[in-house]
């Protein structure tokens, strides 16, 4: 889950880059490894700046000023393929045909076959191990087949239709063709999120700016309205104040990733018609039922304590449902980012300690129920429980708003190794023992699904392979999962061969 955005301003004399950066700041929680913006200015020139770091580090005011043009794309990255090297920062670019850039949120599961095809059949060079570079090259190959000097909308829709039959996995993408426009498309199952909004300009002739984004909160902040999801299998072309939308795949099931509601998305976003904040409140409410079943109505809990940030909403609702006091027992250092999306276990572990600090008075001689949105590797919960004990807690119960995370994710969440997932091979009691908790209580799959589903009639099923091992694209082989386990586990990744660092923070397309 990276963050992506694309903007087309109606006034061709305005620059899109400053607002793209603002959107990236709103999407920063989706990726902290690298950031990038590409804009398209006069005579179809691309201007690019990307590199490792947070959006504001990579794109300072000076660099932003150099990104000319009224349309552009932005990306913040959390790697799920390749390395964290700056050469894999996005958007990616190919010069032929036409000049195309692309930014991707998600992960492809058939990169081996696609890479082979690109090399053997169409002789395209791949410079990194990024699946997003493959995706861009597939799009370029499909467009190339037109043989035309200049393409039209029909050609773009055809290229994306073909891409839907070739690329398997999760992909929400924004792309830009030099001098033509911005294109947004979402995989046939709508696994990764994307939405679109418009904003009336101040000019005397009515016209609109258009923006697409992973999350609606970014569009709202920039005063876009009529925000709605890009549908699964839908492609949208935005060019010179004109927008054309088409559903190119209608046969696949609409199955967005449920983990967006659990952890990834901002609470103020509405994803696929489901308000994330409300879904989290419902998770808290439902989890309270399981807590009652496990610990009894008359339990010995003195207070409910959240693990900042994501679980606050869940814990507050749970405490109300149980009629127990909600207490902020951990102070969070606001300058430390999200730990789950950091690369490497040792870094994640240390960061939890630096990010969260237990307040003794909330724990001393108390029985506490600590609530988190999820327990994935157990990095956070193990440290947190130890901190609670060190602060004098008598009993420490731990509740998770997500069910046990047991299986690898292949669609854009970096959970490549089952061996690293604390619940993959351990029972709930064993998990409690490893974490040092008196009891661990998990949400049921059914209750999580209900918490999210109640807000929409459009979604019948979610992508929730991390809980049930069912991969909605249907063709994730055992061999693929075994390779993933071997190639991307933490110890393999701590000594990567790496990709060539030829990009860095750069401006290679500057005029
Ligand atoms: O079991 P683990 O492997 O530790 O993963 C789960 C934890 O990681 C996330 O927190 P994170 O610090 O990334 O973000 P947050 O501040 O939004 O809660 C999530 O909210 C859990 O607290
Ligand atoms: N989390 C994501 O969406 C990652 C996108 C892409 N697979 C990459 O690794 O860059
Ligand atoms: Mg957390």
TrEMBL record:
Residue numbers annotated as active site: 2
Stretch forming the signal peptide: none
Keyword tags: Glutamine amidotransferase, Glycosyltransferase, Magnesium, Metal-binding, Purine biosynthesis, Transferase
Pathway where this protein functions: Purine metabolism; IMP biosynthesis via de novo pathway; N(1)-(5-phospho-D-ribosyl)glycinamide from 5-phospho-alpha-D-ribose 1-diphosphate: step 1/2
Residue span, Glutamine amidotransferase type-2 domain: 2-241
EC number: 2.4.2.14
Residue ranges, compositional bias (Low complexity): 494-505
GO biological process: one example: 'de novo' IMP biosynthetic process
Co-factor remark: Binds 1 Mg(2+) ion per subunit.
PROSITE patterns assigned: GATASE_TYPE_2
Binding site for Mg(2+): 310, 372-373
Cofactor(s) listed: Mg(2+)
Reactions catalysed: 5-phospho-beta-D-ribosylamine + L-glutamate + diphosphate = 5-phospho-alpha-D-ribose 1-diphosphate + L-glutamine + H2O
Region (Disordered): 487-511
MF GO annotations: amidophosphoribosyltransferase activity; metal ion binding
Pfam family of the protein (one): GATase_6
Matches recorded under HAMAP family: PurF
Similarity-based family: In the C-terminal section; belongs to the purine/pyrimidine phosphoribosyltransferase family.
Designated name of the protein: Amidophosphoribosyltransferase
Organism, as annotated: Furculomyces boomerangus
């Amino acid at each position: 889950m990276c963050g992506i955005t694309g903007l087309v301003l109606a006034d061709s004399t305005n620059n899109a880059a400053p607002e793209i950066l603002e959107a990236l700041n709103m999407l920063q929680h989706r990726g902290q490894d690298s950031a990038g913006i590409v804009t398209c200015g006069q005579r179809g020139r691309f201007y690019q700046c990307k590199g490792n770091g947070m959006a504001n580090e990579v794109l300072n005011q000076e660099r932003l000023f150099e990104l000319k043009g009224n349309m552009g794309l932005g990306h913040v990255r959390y790697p799920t393929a390749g390395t964290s090297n700056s050469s894999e920062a996005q958007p990616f670019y190919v010069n032929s045909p036409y000049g195309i850039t692309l930014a991707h949120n998600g992960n492809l599961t058939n990169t081996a076959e696609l890479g082979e095809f690109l090399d053997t059949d169409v002789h395209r060079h791949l410079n990194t191990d990024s699946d997003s570079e493959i995706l861009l090259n597939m799009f370029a190959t499909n467009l190339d087949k037109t043989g035309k000097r200049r393409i039209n909308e029909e050609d773009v829709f055809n290229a994306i239709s073909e891409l839907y039959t070739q690329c398997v996995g999760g992909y929400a993408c924004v792309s830009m063709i030099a001098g033509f426009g911005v294109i947004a498309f979402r995989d046939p199952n709508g696994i990764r999120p994307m939405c679109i909004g418009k904003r009336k300009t101040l000019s005397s002739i009515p016209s609109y700016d258009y923006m697409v984004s992973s999350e609606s909160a970014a569009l709202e902040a920039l005063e876009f309205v009529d925000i709605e999801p890009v549908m699964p299998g839908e492609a949208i072309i935005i060019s010179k104040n004109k927008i054309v939308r088409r559903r190119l795949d209608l046969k696949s099931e609409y199955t967005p990733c449920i983990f967006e509601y659990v952890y990834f998305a901002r609470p103020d976003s509405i994803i696929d018609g489901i308000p994330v904040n409300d879904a989290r409140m419902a998770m808290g409410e439902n989890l309270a039922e399981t807590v009652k079943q496990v610990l009894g109505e008359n339990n010995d809990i003195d207070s409910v304590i959240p693990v900042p940030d994501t679980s606050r909403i869940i814990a507050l609702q749970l405490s109300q449902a149980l009629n127990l006091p909600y207490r902020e027992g951990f102070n969070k250092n606001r300058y430390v980012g999200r730990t789950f999306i950091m690369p490497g276990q040792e870094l994640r572990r240390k960061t939890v300690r630096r990010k969260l600090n237990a307040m003794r008075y909330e724990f001393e001689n108390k029985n506490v129920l600590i609530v988190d949105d999820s327990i994935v590797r157990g990095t956070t919960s193990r440290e947190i429980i130890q901190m609670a004990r060190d602060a004098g807690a008598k009993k420490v119960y731990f509740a998770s708003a997500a069910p046990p995370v047991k299986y690898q994710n292949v669609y854009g969440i970096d959970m490549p190794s089952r061996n690293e997932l604390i619940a993959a091979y351990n029972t709930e009691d064993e998990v409690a023992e490893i974490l040092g908790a008196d009891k661990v209580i998990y949400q049921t799959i059914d209750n999580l699904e209900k918490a999210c589903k109640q807000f929409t009639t459009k979604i019948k099923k979610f992508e929730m392979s991390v809980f049930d091992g069912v991969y909605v694209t249907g063709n994730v082989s055992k061999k693929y999962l075994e390779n993933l386990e071997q190639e991307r586990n933490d110890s393999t990744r701590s000594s990567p061969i790496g990709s060539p660092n030829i990009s860095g923070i750069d401006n290679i397309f500057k005029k």
